[in-house]
Amino acid sequence: MEMSNRGLTLIELMVVVFIVAILAAIAIPVYTSNIQRARRADAKTALQQVRGAQEMWRAEKGFYSASVAELQTTMGAPQANINQYYTWSFIATGATTWTAQATALGSQAVDGNLTINQDGVTLPADKWAK
After folding, report:
1. Phi and psi (nearest 5°) for 5?
2. pTM
3. What are 41-85's pLDDT values in tens digits?
């Protein structure tokens, strides 16, 4: 009577572990990059919402608002929740000019600052294009 030997050899197991390690080495950076792009998109959306709210404010009152808090209570902007990955700054330099900026934090720090102004000019342009 012949005994069948069913099971994995050490070499077969090592090959499987090696393949899984290669797949993980490829997948993790791709996943991280996609997460960073999604967070950047949230920040861009929030800044665009600020711009839209500012334009509505100006249409109603004839001048731009001096604070994001004022826009949030009356115009409802920005709605995107980006506070964990970006900090806000909002500068109204007069009744006709303003700049909103999202500064990246932590793992998003590679983004640097995302900025938009009353004319819709976005900086840095390469981060807005992606």
Report:
1. -105, 100
2. 0.74
3. 888 888 888 888 888 888 888 888 887 777 777 766 565 556 788
- For residue 85 the two structure tokens come to 């990955």
d(CA 58, CA 96): 9
Domain boundaries, the chain: 10-129
Residue 111 tokens read as 């983004």
Residue positions counted in the chain:
130
Evaluate whether 97 touches 66 at the Cβ level (below 8 Å). Answer: no
Mean pLDDT of the chain: 83
pLDDT at 129: 66
DSSP secondary structure, the chain, as one string: -PPP--S--HHHHHHHHHHHHHHHHHHHHHHHHHHHHHHHHHHHHHHHHHHHHHHHHHHHHSS--S-HHHHHHHT----S--TTTEEEEEEE-SSS-EEEEEEE-GGGGGG-EEEEETT--EESHHHHH-
Quick one: residue 127, left, alpha or beta (phi over 0 = left, psi -120 to 50 = alpha)? alpha
